[in-house]
């Protein structure tokens, strides 16, 4: 369909779209919808705290379950995923299956507007990483591997998507944007390590990242 309030119309009859996979019903797979600490403001007359306070993560670290589980590390993983795909920045909630408790994995739902503008890198999506300065060791190692010439992320994605019945799926500019954004993520991690040291920034997957008072003091300066 084509309506004046939508910024998409056929040219003349073809229209870009997306495919969706549906989860089991809540009766079969109960899950929780949890507000994202880095939710965006949806008004023109105000901003969320994280948008104006670079020390916002210190507050998040004091709140359950981010205070004593790997939830914060999972939030950073989700932000990295959203940044790589150039998502529409409105990850206002995330969901979890209740069966696995507080340490369960996050469901990355609602990605229909991923890979929209290949020429724009929305750095604010990386706020959980840049403000908390923590990342899973396994995530960092995988990102570093995908930055190597022989395992370049764009090449891996290109080869993988060739097997898809809808190939090529992504255009070449979108594939190249993955490499550019990956380097920006590694740069952000590098700045954190320069400031706080690798032992503080790079966390084991099951370890709860800490924010010592000494590191908070350095942020204040």
From TrEMBL:
Its main location: Golgi. The active site is at residue 90. It comes from the Eukaryota. GO terms for molecular function: ATP binding; kinase activity; metal ion binding; protein serine/threonine kinase activator activity. It holds the Pfam family Fam20C. ATP binds at residues 20-23, 95, 110. One of its GO terms (cellular component) is Golgi apparatus. Mn(2+) binds at residue 110. Residues 1-201 form the FAM20 C-terminal domain. It is found in: Golgi apparatus. Its cofactor is Mn(2+). Keywords: ATP-binding, Disulfide bond, Glycoprotein, Golgi apparatus, Kinase, Manganese, Metal-binding, Nucleotide-binding, Transferase. Belongs to the FAM20 family. This is FA20A Pseudokinase.
């Amino acid at each position: 369909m084509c309506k004046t309030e939508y910024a998409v119309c056929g040219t003349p009859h073809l229209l870009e779209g997306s495919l969706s996979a549906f989860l089991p019903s809540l009766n079969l797979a109960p899950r929780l919808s949890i507000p994202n600490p880095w939710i965006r403001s949806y008004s023109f007359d105000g901003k969320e705290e994280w948008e104006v306070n670079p020390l916002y993560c210190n507050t998040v670290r004091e709140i359950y379950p981010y205070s004593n589980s790997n939830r914060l590390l999972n939030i950073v993983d989700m932000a990295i995923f959203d940044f790589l795909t150039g998502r529409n920045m409105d990850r206002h909630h995330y969901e979890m299956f209740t069966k696995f408790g507080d340490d369960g994995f996050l469901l990355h739902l609602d990605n229909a507007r991923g890979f929209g503008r290949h020429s724009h890198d929305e750095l604010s999506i990386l706020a959980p990483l840049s403000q908390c300065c923590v990342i899973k060791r396994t995530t960092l190692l995988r990102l570093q591997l995908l930055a190597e010439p022989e395992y370049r992320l764009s090449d891996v994605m290109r080869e993988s998507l060739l097997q898809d019945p809808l190939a090529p799926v992504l255009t070449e500019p979108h594939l190249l944007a993955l490499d550019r954004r990956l380097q920006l993520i590694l740069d952000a991690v590098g700045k954190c390590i320069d400031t706080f040291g690798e032992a503080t920034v790079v966390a084991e997957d099951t370890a709860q990242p800490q924010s010592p008072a000494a590191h908070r003091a350095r942020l204040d300066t």
